[in-house]
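Memo to structure team: turn this sequence into structure tokens by end of day. - J.P.
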Amino acid sequence: MNEQTPKPVAARVRKNNIFTSVVWLVPLIALIAGSWLLMKNIRNTGPKVTLLMDSADGIEISNTVIKVLSVNVGRVTKIGLRENRQGVEVTATLNADVRDLIRKDTQFWVVKPRIDQSGVTGLNTLVSGSYIAFTPGISEEKADTFTVSELPPLAAIGQTGLRLKLNGKNSKMITPGSPVMYENFIVGQVESASFNPNTQTVEYSIFIQSPNQDLVNKGSQFWLESGIKINTNGGGLSIDSAPLPALLSGAIAFSSPKANSNQQVKNDDPFTLYSSRNEINDLPSERALYYTVFFNDSIRGLLKGSPVEYKGIKVGSVADAPYFERNGSLTLFTNGWIPVRIRIEPDSMEINADPQSHEHWQRQFQTALNNGLNAMMASNNLITGSKLIELTSAPTSGAKLKPFTQYAGDNVIPTRSGGLDNLQAQLGDLLNKLNKLPLEKTMGELNGTLAELKTTLNSANKLISKPQTQRIPEELNKTLTELRQTLKGVSPQSPLYGDIQTTLHSIEQTLREAKPLLNTLKEQPNALIFKPNQTDPIPKGSR
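Reply from structure team:
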């Protein structure tokens, strides 16, 4: 039997659709999901900013957050040293929704527990840790690198106002955050304070909140305000206290003349910062008149800024005390003259009057000098020992001091002694006269006279105490009685009778007059020297 060779059968290939395979769907879904997550992350991830800080104290990677208005909007992702090794460089990634808030003028600062003149802040960070906050900027220009401040900005978000630059040669410097005051009202704050070693001046940046910026004009004057002001003058002692923030840290105060109210200022305009209000008051005006006075007495207590008065009205102040021209002090011990320069301010004399020219007041003052106007140094306050210069037209018998007609280009006002100095001089002369009196010799002679008087009194007492002296009145009465008996035998017609009667009357009159004296001597033996019923005399010196 023949075996038949089987015929080959063609193979059938089944075609399957790749998209219907479950195995291939998983990578596709993963790819789509990854792409979506990537796009979402890119869309939600905001800008990266570089923050420059002095130190990374309290800053941690992934733990320190970035906040704006207490809302978390980012986190610190990197901390490293700066290239110049002068601080650290912190990188932070922010959310996308704050992308438009990051501008060139955006301000960052570290929030941590702090105690200053404003109070206690940042206590919530004791548990959560420090964080970095920022205030949005409004500039059109963008930036990604910022310097982080230790203190928060003084101007709130969106707050308007006026920023000014102050510069002055001050002996002290107040801290940022100190108040800016106008008439004891807080209208702003100090933003920054620094010392410039090149110019040796203190530079400030201050911010005055709206609408208080209208208080500032081109004529405004700024000065440092101390916590407590103590003023001493002729009226006594006065104490003025500033608001509490100024007491703690000091303040900057200013005033603005109404004459310049229409001269407005703009941001970053410069102004001079004076050390005190008194320094501003001592600034000379354009119409100021300068004169020189000379004193032979001590000028202790007479300082720069001491008042110059005319009949109790302040008309100026002391400009320089002492005031020597070139090499003028070399003759100080030769003549003993001490020159003092004074400044007369017409503003002080224009009381309820229209302003006058410099020439007008110069003529007025010269006329007063021609009529005998002179100056004297007087006490301003007995407690502090401060002095003032008083202008007066009162005549004086003493000599006036006017060694020059002009001194260092200024007219010289004659001076005279007066006040306490004159009283001291008079007391000194009196004491010198008393010292020249021979008091020791006089007292010796007086003691000798008193001793003689005492001896005389003792003798008089002994004389009066004798029985013979005390029996004198009785014997005289007995004698008179005997005489009357004798006269009875004499005829009235006899010439002898008339003579005897006359004699008897005389004796009787004498006895009547002597009886009070004898009684007085009996009671007061010293009545022969001193008058009765009178105290002992007090020795007096010669006049």
